[in-house]
Amino acid sequence: MDTFLTFALTGVVLFSLGLQEVLARPGVLRMLIAVNVMGSGTLLFFVSLAHRHADGPDPVPHALALTGIVVTLAATAAGLALARGLHRLRAEGSGGRVEGGRVEGGRSQGAGYERGRSESGRDEQGRADR
Amino acid sequence: MIGLEVVFDVSVAVLLVVLALESLYTPNLFTSIAFFIAFGLVMALAWVRLQAPDLALAEAAVGAGLTGVLLLDAAREIAAVRGVERTPRSMVRLTSLLVAAGVGVALVAALLEVPPRAAGLAEAVREALPLTAVEHGVTSVLLDFRALDTFFETAVLLLAVITVLVLQAHQHVRIIPWELSASPVLSGLVGLLAPVVLVFSGYLLWAGTHAPGGAFQAGVLLGAGGILLELAGVHTVSRLPRRALRWLLSLGVAGFALLSGTLLLAGRGLLELPGAGARTIVIALEIAIAVSVALTVVSLVVGSNLRLEPPEQEP
Amino acid sequence: MSAAVAWLIWLPLAAAVASFVAGAGRARRALGLAASVVMLLPALLVFEAVRRDGPQRYLVGWPAPLGIELRADLLSAALVLLTACVGLLVAAYASASLTDPPSQHAVDPPAAFWSLWLLLSAGLNALYLSTDLFNLYVALEMVTLSAIGLVSIPGTRATIGAALVYLLATLVGSLAFLFGVALLYGAHGTLELYELGRLLEGGPLAWSAMGLMTLGIMVKAAFFPLHFWLPDAHGHALPAVSALLSGLVVKGGFYLLVRVWFDAFPNVLLPSFGLALGLLALVGIVWASLHAVSEGRLKRLLAYSTVAQLGLMLLTVPLAIAGPGGGVGASITPGVEPGLALALSHGLAKAALFLSAGAFIHAAGSDALSELGGVARRLPLALLAFALAAWTLLGLPPSGGYEAKALFEQAAAVGPIPWQLVVQGGTLLTALYLGVALRAAFEPAAARKRLRAVPLALQIPPLLLAALAVGLGLLPLASGAP
Lengths: 130, 315, 482
Known about the structure:
The structure holds three protein chains of three kinds.
Chain A: H1 3-23, H2 28-49, H3 59-91, E1 98-99, E2 102-103, H4 121-129
Antiparallel strand pairs in A: 1-2
Helix pairs in contact in A: 1-2, 2-3
Chain B: H1 4-25, H2 29-49, H3 53-82, H4 90-113, H5 122-128, H6 137-145, H7 147-170, E1 173-175, H8 184-207, H9 215-231, H10 242-249, H11 251-265, H12 278-303, E2 306-308
Antiparallel strand pairs in B: 1-2
Helix pairs in contact in B: 1-2, 2-3, 3-9, 6-7, 7-11, 7-12, 8-9, 9-12, 11-12
Chain C: H1 3-21, H2 25-53, E1 56-59, E2 69-72, H3 74-97, H4 109-129, H5 133-151, H6 157-188, H7 193-199, H8 204-221, H9 230-236, H10 239-264, H11 271-294, H12 298-322, H13 337-364, H14 375-378, H15 380-394, H16 400-414, H17 419-442, H18 460-471, H19 476-479
Antiparallel strand pairs in C: 1-2
């Protein structure tokens, strides 16, 4: 096995492992970890392709993978911020349930930012749910 | 005859799979994150083996470093209430296994069809490289041949930061200094490290034109320095005026927009760099990207470390 | 003229930065609104150029395969124009409906709407114009991350939860797409869509790549059965945001599917792929329509309707596969006219429906159907918008929807499978759930219920959108496509 095949295969394995775990929906943070494993697998596969050339690697997959790392980071950071935001609102105890990523309850239309509404959309929501 | 290189490659690959498995299936969330960080470090090794030092740098900084910090931080907050154990559900588990196995088999079948020897665009890049302003292939792809990708990438980073800051604004949160600030050891360490970080990220930025390194890696490193400063109670980013923060966060996109707007008005393509002065343009762009990446990194980490104000009383 | 293609991407990006750094909320709103108006110009120019001279090619810098090229054909130009039109009217609505609280934070949530919307439109335009698969991946990420940011603007539990599910689903989808792209690059050393279209032949690699990319797009576009994230996201977001998501964002997914299938995989496509997609679409239409009928909330009803209408759009894919084959570089891929016509009329009509729903909700203070009593009498203009949009969605003449269905039936008549029966069944179900919504609006107001006054500025944008949706049937756009 040469370097290309070894890492291309590893990429496939990592992608499938991550996919399996995301689909099993073990909770938000674990799903984000799994997505990152999937991402590493994808990029590993992509970059291993650049290694099939005798006189030095093909720089294009390297550059694309760099972009891929940044994009995955951005999405992960946004996901973690959302997870924490959701957690904080739940910790405030405004009722409703979140299970396996499915949100139930909650009736707000984001009233707080619609013109002429009271600014206490969240409180109203809390009361309605109780 | 099995060469040493093959042994090394296979060990790295096996280690990657083992660490991924541990990270995915360990019951304890914190252990799982620790394995994920280790996984990121081994990924950096794999990039080295694939002769991709730019990626090794980025992976060590992002995959292992930044993502790990963000995950740990979130776990600290969420797991305190929700617990850290995972609860697998057998039916879902079985279906997901079947789907993932199917995908894996299809991918292996596809892999067998990938030609084992191919140059991709390596030749094309090598031929065109002398016509660009830089000598490093990866940088020429990122900032010249496929600069549009990088333009969009800076926009994606800005999007992430907007989402994080919107949430922060919502939850009536204020930044609290991390409690480590009292430690004299840390302050001393930071005092020593800060200039080193600054110099090294400057080096990475400059190196990007002719060697591995570049705006993104330099920016993440600079951001790490910023986080250290915040940790030590030296509040740089969290005390920036709001408007200045917004400017700095969008500097990368703004730099690209300024450049491409000028090029368009001059009758050139959206990102068709001119022959003369291209090097200056690329370096200026890299500085802009690095600064916005650094600020983004600090905002992502510090921005989520906020404490809720007590909820307002209903009237 | 081809520089207009570049302005379509530059303008929203530059305006997004400007509105992000601008200080006051009012300045951001003004910038966002102005940019939305100005964007119409390059959109119209590109559309006219494509209609007159055929596809427009544009070099960003280096020629492909090293560089990235943009290309506008009728499919992309029409969707770019849809983005500009819907975007402008939704921006007008948003400008009238969003508050300007004094600036307190680094980013104030309502003001963030403007940068997010502009980045969304930049992403959509890039998606419609780029011919480079990796660039399309990055554009797709721009679209979804801005959509997620937009959904989470209100900061409530429901919206944050919906945004989170949307994000997780979409992340998996984009990685699947990216893996497919990597496979294609590995096999042929290029990322250029049309070049790949010439090179790719059927086989395990092409099928795997196509399968992964299709799955990725299906998650992103919320095609049944991977639509699970859509009803929450579209149902809980601000009305203006729902209008953008249902009117525009899902069209991006549909476009990408058509683009990738017919331009990158033309020699890989088998009629059975189309059949499988058609059957999924069929189940999706019935399932989502039934959900819409039994839904108790107006915006969720409309969100399920989007899933059902996406099914109708998907049904055009098997027709296009069965239809006459076309050469690469045609002005429009043969056979996709019905899909395009449906996408355009649904884009305008669904945006109108969500905005008039926004006006109803503004008056009634809730989007529960049971609370909507009296809004019909109180908001005649918004009601007219709702009814006109429903008219289009039902495909009654004259309207864009009618034209689309006529095209569809024309194409289905030559094929072996009577897909037009599905369309007729779908129309019946559409009538059912839209009837439920309209009936709720016509109920008398509850005894002591007070409806709040709704400014005209909230009723006129949906009315204009609905008028455009109907007017589409009078334009030669849908039926006269070359």
